[in-house]
Amino acid sequence: MKNLLNLKKYWLILISFTLIFSVIGFIASVVQTPKYESTVQLLVIQKYGDQFDAFTAKRSAETVAETLSSVVYTSSFMRQVIAAPIGINDNFPKELKERKQAWKKEINARLLEGGNFQIIVSDKDRDQAEKIAYGIAYIFVTNGSEYHGGGQQVEIKMVEKPITSTKPVSPNIYLNTILGFVAGLFTSIGIVFLLPEKTEQKKIKFKEDKTKHQYKKVTSTVPNNLPIAKKQEKVDNKKGYTGEEYSESKVDEWVKTGRFNK
Fold it and tell me: Relative to the CA of 76, which of 90, 111, 174, 229 has its CA 20 to 30 Å away?
């Protein structure tokens, strides 16, 4: 119940942080370069007869598919894809290391069951993404034996032509804005729950410090040389003063004149 009251009390913090994080998520999405995706699906077929049964052929096809999925990231395979008669624009960096890194960012291989695997290409140019997907499928279908070593016993087919998105798939503006909204909401709730506790601790510490300061101020006014007053009390009592009267009047006078400091 107390936490709910705190949320109501600090509603401005909740709204502020939620809006700020949502705007950050939106802006971060807008400034990024939009990219399209093109996905092509390939199938590895392991022929079987006297040498292989169906189960062994399936396992062999899955092994070949795994090998081809790793080959797709290599520089030699990249050169063959770009050189394929598909019309791919070679807009990758010229330096070998940067060129390979840029290729890896655009290509994603995904293994499926039964010797199937997908190649997902992402690029800021929709046509370029689709052409690269076609080029990868073309090289595997026509020159796949260079990479799997199975000869005529292994065949690679394109079972799904490249499917290309009509709209950019990244960045996802709506998703990033929602994630920013959720992050801001939870952050503000955490601050609201911790704020009253810290404020209360500061109040307690302030009261303790104030009490200590007052205690020091009071004790510092008490004179340390009271024995002198007692000694004078005996001498002046002869004049008729009582000890109580003399102590009160003289001590007050000494405090005012600063006699205790001598």
Answer: 111
Please answer whether residues 106 and 39 qualify as being in contact, where contact means their C-beta atoms are separated by less than 8 angstroms: no
Are 116 and 41 in contact by the 8 Å Cβ rule? The answer is yes
73 in Cβ contact with 125 (< 8 Å): no
Tell me, yes or no, whether 255 lies in a domain: yes
Q: Are 55 and 13 in a shared domain?
A: no
Query: Do residues 138 and 233 both lie within one domain?
Result: no
pLDDT digits (tens, 9 = 90+) for 58-111: 888 888 899 999 999 999 999 999 999 989 999 899 998 999 999 999 999 999
> How many Å apart are CA 119 and CA 164, to the nearest integer?
12
Rg from Cα positions in the chain = 43
pTM of the model: 0.60
The reply to whether omega before 168 is within 30° of 0 (cis) is no
Co-location of 28 and 38 in the same domain? no
List b or e across 189-205, with b for residues whose CB sees 16 or more CB atoms inside 10 angstroms. beebeeeeeeeeeeeee
Instruction: Tell me whether residue 215 is in a domain.
Output: no
Domain assignment present for residue 26? The answer is: yes
- Is residue 218 one of the residues assigned to a domain? no
Using CB atoms within 10 A of its CB, is residue 168 exposed (0-12), middle (13-18) or buried (19+)?
Answer: middle
> Could you list the residue range(s) of the whole structural domain that residue 255 is in?
223-261
Report whether 44 contacts 65 (CB < 8 A). yes
